[in-house]
Design a protein that fits this description.
Length: 171
C-alpha cells in the first residue's frame, strides 16, 4: 500500500542515499500522484497458471479506471500491461515467482511500455516458494535488464532481516 503524504512530511518511501540516486527523476512524485490499487484478475491463479481471457481483464480494468489510475499486479501478464497502457493506467509490474524464467522474460519485455514505472519481484513467498539468493538474483537481473526500479513485497517479519530491507530500490 502506498500512502499519500504532504511534501512537508516524511516520505514513506524508504531507501538508502545510494539507491535514491538510482531512482529515475520524478519516480517518487509519480508514485504519490497516482491512485493505486493492487489488482489480480477475476478468476486468476498464477500458481496453477490460470489466467482469464482478455475481455474479462478489460472489463475489470474499465471498472477500476473509474476510481484508480494505477495498477499494481502480482504476476507477469502481457495482457494487463498492454491494457494498462491503452486505458491510461500507470503500473507497478509484479513477478509472482522469481524462479520463473517465463515471468522474468515477460517483465523484461514490458520495460518498453511507458505505463510500467517499476517492478515488484516476489510476493510473500520468501523461504516458502523461493529463497533469498533467488530473489536477489532476479531483482538484480530485472534492474540491469530494464533500468527501472525494482522492489519486493514480502511479509512484515521478513523485513527484520537487514538483507531483505535493503533489497529493493524502494520499500
Amino acid at each position: 500500500k502506498l500512502e499519500r503524504h504532504d511534501k512537508q512530511t516524511t516520505s514513506p518511501i524508504q531507501t538508502s542515499p545510494d539507491k535514491a540516486k538510482k531512482l529515475p527523476a520524478g519516480f517518487t512524485e509519480k508514485l504519490y500522484s497516482v491512485k493505486w490499487i493492487a489488482y489480480s484478475p477475476t478468476n486468476c491463479d498464477p500458481e496453477k497458471k490460470i489466467y482469464p481471457p482478455e475481455e474479462s481483464v478489460r472489463t475489470d480494468l474499465l471498472v477500476l479506471r473509474k476510481y484508480f489510475n494505477g495498477i499494481i499486479t502480482y504476476a507477469a501478464d502481457d495482457t494487463i500491461s498492454r491494457l494498462s497502457k491503452e486505458l491510461g493506467f500507470s503500473m507497478l509490474y509484479g513477478i509472482w515467482s522469481p524462479n520463473s524464467e517465463e515471468e522474468l522474460t515477460k517483465a523484461k519485455e514490458a520495460s518498453t511500455n511507458d505505463a510500467v514505472l517499476g517492478y515488484i519481484c516476489g510476493n510473500e513467498g520468501l523461504d516458502s516458494r523461493y529463497d533469498l539468493a533467488t530473489l536477489e538474483r532476479a531483482m538484480k537481473e530485472l534492474s540491469e535488464a530494464t533500468g527501472k526500479p525494482v522492489t519486493t513485497t514480502e511479509e512484515l517479519h521478513d523485513y527484520y532481516n537487514p538483507r531483505v530491507l535493503e533489497l529493493g530500490d524502494w520499500v
